[in-house]
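Check these lines:
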Amino acid sequence: MKYAILPCNGLDKAAGQGSREVALWLVESGHGELVCPVLVNNSPDRYAPVLGELPLLVIDGCATQCATKLANRLGRKIARKLQVTEEAKRMGATLGKSLRMGQDGLALASTLAALVVEQTDVVGRPSSEEVAQADYVHVQEQIEVAHDKFLFKVPVSGYLFNENDVWVQVSADGRRARIGVSDFVQQQLTDISFVGLPTIGAEVEQFGDVGYVESAKATLELVSPVSGRVVAVNSALVDAPETVNAEPYDKGWVAELELKDVAADRDLLIDGPAYASVIEKKASEYS
């Protein structure tokens, strides 16, 4: 797959230089067409053909997310995102402070670019690793927590939650589990515009990061309720992140893990009725 690639323009920071190098690596290896952030900001029509033909990959240098903000300002739908400092931290690497990319910096940039290609190949394939739908029970009876004009829904059974508002649903055979965000979270974030999917094969510890959801209002890191290995991601959310708003407990699942020790993980999780009480408390604090 090829992308229209919009990198960060913060060239006064090492992270911005890293973003540029990742973009150049992808372009030179035939995986995309470069979109200059300055030119597209001043003359959007110049890149209309490329942006109309190819999915948009945004490469942010840091948490400022200037490339993401530019894409949103131009009204362009983001297909995939990469944040250089976030990925470097996850890999245990450092960018340093120099604006000149040394050998280590260039090696990191090529690794991140290869990661984009690898994730694209995985997400683009039919999900042969997914557990059949029949292995997961659809939401039925729900608790409704009313607060002001809001009505937050929580499944009575079949789901466990952490207090970070992330749910887990264990498959019928007990070997795998899907995770996602609660109805409370999706209403707090309002319209979700992007879902950051974890890498298939990544090992995740309980309370470790396992992706994120983003809206114009905020970005929420998903804190995993369980430990295990990521074996599938909900690739449908790449094109339709709003599914998390519409069906947070069913079609809005984010990732699927092969469980490591679910019995031990359960000790730090709560069931639906207990989570409903947590929501009541959180909602009152936000008032």
In short: The chain has two domains: 3-124, 138-286. The first helix runs from residue 14 to 28. The first strand starts at residue 3 and ends at 7.
